[in-house]
Amino acid sequence: MGSFALFVSALLCIASVLSSYGIVGVEGYLKYDTGSGIVDGKLNVHLVAHSHDDVGWLKTIDQYYVGSNNSIQGACVENVLDSVVMALRRDPSRKFIFAEMAFFSRWWEEQSVEIQEEVRQLVDAGRLEFVNGGWCMHDEATTHYIDMIDQTTLGHQLIKSQFNKTPRAGWQIDPFGHSAVQAYLLGARNICGSRTFGSSSQIFANAFPVHYSPPDGFHFEVNDDFNPVQDNPLLFDFNVEARVNDFIAAAMIQANVTRTNHIMWTMGDDFQYQYAESWFKQMDKLIHYVNKAVRQLEYLMGRRSTSNANTDGLGNALGIAQHHDAVTGTAKQHTTNDYAKRLAIGASETETVVDSALSCLLDSKLNGQCAGSTVIFSQVALHHCDFV
């Protein structure tokens, strides 16, 4: 990679960054470091978690909220908000933006006093942020400017009365075209400007290169067809290096059409985050491993070496093999191959353990202190066995 380095963070607007925390362990529980912050002179990738929730489209607003009529579209905004709040409460480094107050107002009225207080804390900490903040994301070409102001005011009144906040970022990601009126209104309501351009710029705008979704391969809704970051070195399909390389390649493609060294990935799409943990967990891993790779140029090596062989692998494989789709032969062929691979590896590791144990037992000089295997033990091949 030469002198090129890429740093990833999840942030909102210009200056908000995720807090830092360290690694607890490699095997078992691992706490991901997602607080790199801005690095001058490097390509900075900002992950912005969002869900675009149309206030009526293929379904009515009520159907979208409660999740009915799913034969047309599987979407439930109530689930989105429930799931996002739970995921944010689970990890203080996570952030999320939400725009459509017509949905949020319904959800808010249904929450207990305790949940409402926790959500206020999330908003105060900047971890749940309302962008645009209108009752909907209004169209720009066909709406009258008074109606644009009125619907935005309706949403802002709710935010102000419940959270004492005023949205500081615009979020017009799906209207069919843009208008000068919208730009004027954003500037008039003190949406974030850019210090880079000084007083000559009222607002700082960004145009997405393709869509308001992430690059291909980085959609993490639970029912999406994606490759998760598999970072457990004790399991098969370990792919940290491959996923890091995919991330860097996608970032470079976007960097080639971006003027600055800051690019934004909009991590979400229509009615996404119905299971928010799926998104946040994958983003946590990507931030952690991409930054680790560009700083140290090293990755975990994957499944551990058999030098630490034990009988756990065989016991685990035998247990899995008793599954009703394993021992019966009703699984797919690639799954059956995986069962066989696990049994073979487990048997090999167990033979190593047995070799070492026999060495201790047969060599009285060792007094039970085994440095290595000196006797090779192999099972007798049983070609036929009957009950007697």
UniProtKB/TrEMBL annotation:
Q: Does the keyword Mitochondrion apply?
A: no
Q: Which residues form the Glycoside hydrolase family 38 central domain?
A: 276-343
Which of UniProt's keywords are assigned here?
A: Glycosidase, Hydrolase, Signal
Highest taxon of source: Eukaryota
Quick check: keyword Nucleotide-binding in the entry? no
GO MF assignments: alpha-mannosidase activity
InterPro entries (alphabetical): Glyco_hydro/deAcase_b/a-brl (IPR011330), Glyco_hydro_38_cen (IPR015341), Glyco_hydro_38_cen_sf (IPR037094), Glyco_hydro_38_N (IPR000602), Glyco_hydro_38_N_sf (IPR027291), Glyco_hydro_57/38_cen_sf (IPR028995), Glycosyl_Hydrlase_38 (IPR050843)
Give me the segments passing through the membrane: none
In the record, biological process GO terms are: mannose metabolic process
Q: What Gene3D superfamilies has UniProt attached to this entry? A: Glycoside hydrolase 38, N terminal domain (3.20.110.10), Glycoside hydrolase family 38, central domain (1.20.1270.50)
As given in the record, the signal peptide range reads: 1-20
Spell out the PANTHER family in the cross-references: ALPHA-MANNOSIDASE
Name under which the protein is recorded: Alpha-mannosidase
